[in-house]
Amino acid sequence: MTTGRFHKMHGLGNDFVIIDARETEMNLSSAIATAIADRRSGIGCDQLIVLRPSSVADVRMQIFNADGSEVEACGNASRCVAKLIGDETRIETAGGIITGHATEDGAIVDMGKPRFEWQSIPLAYAMDTLSMPVGWEDLQNPATVNVGNPHVIFFVDDSDGVELERLGPMIEVDPLFPDKVNVNIAHIADGIIHLRVWERGVGLTRACGTGACATAVAAIRRGMVNSPVQVNLPGGSLTISWQEGEHIQMQGPTTYVFSGEADWDRFG
């Protein structure tokens, strides 16, 4: 690896270091990704995004969590990449191909069709994914949705009253979820979803685009809200649209923070 440029962007406070490696090959290990993401000794981010050539789309997006693990999808990063590249962009991810359209203040992203089969989440064994007969302390009967990555959603009376810092890491690694899971805690007031997310490999995050999509889909399936629905997260709001059998549409802002150069070998 050599010295190269990077972009720092965020979607509702969920922040990314984006490296464009479409013309220059760049091999990244989990350890290097973790070093870049470190907020004290690195550049600092929730996720490191590497853009690579794609034979089936305009660009391939590789996603590293702050702990070095790779994940299949990231909604906020997808919006940032769509905004960065501009116009209409087809983005290949490990979770499938998605399409983004840049807007004046952000992007609209087609996140594809959600999956509900227990094998597709995946779960360790078969059960109803709309109302699962399981629970962790006061968090009971969640829904699960795969939107390119796995999410479990709990609907409660007050999402701020849940000890997500304690329960999130416990649920994330529960053996029920072979690939681990993102943990979403939501309540609904006046037709608006209020959401907090414990993101696997990251922890508490100010916003999670795929979490907003999964939670909105679960709430619509349960008849709790109508599409389109506003999802409020600690970092701001997203608008999610979805109808049974259709693709999920996510609209929200992005922010370009700065660009810079780094000697990637220093992170090795």
Outline the structure in words.
By secondary structure, the protein is α+β, with helices and mostly antiparallel strands. The chain has a 17-stranded mixed beta sheet that branches. Strands 9-10 form a two-stranded antiparallel ribbon. The termini are close together. The protein has helices at residues 30-37, 75-85, 164-172, 209-221; strands spanning 3-11, 14-20, 47-52, 59-65, 70-71, 88-93, 96-102, 106-112, 135-136, 139-140, 143-146, 150-155, 182-189, 192-199, 203-205, 229-233, 236-241, 248-253, 255-263. The radius of gyration is 18 Å and the shape is globular. The protein is 15% helix and 41% strand.
Structural class assignment: alpha+beta
Kindly state the number of beta strands. Answer: 19
Question: What summary fits the major beta sheet?
Answer: 17 strands, mixed
Based on CA inertia axes, which overall geometry fits?
globular
Oligomerization: single chain
Poorly predicted runs of 5 or more residues: none
**Number of continuous helical runs:** 4
Mean pLDDT over the full residue set = 95
How would you spell out the order of helices and strands?
A: EEHEEEHEEEEEEEHEEEHEEEE
Distance N to C terminus = 9 Å
- What proportion of the residues form beta strands (DSSP E)? 35-45%
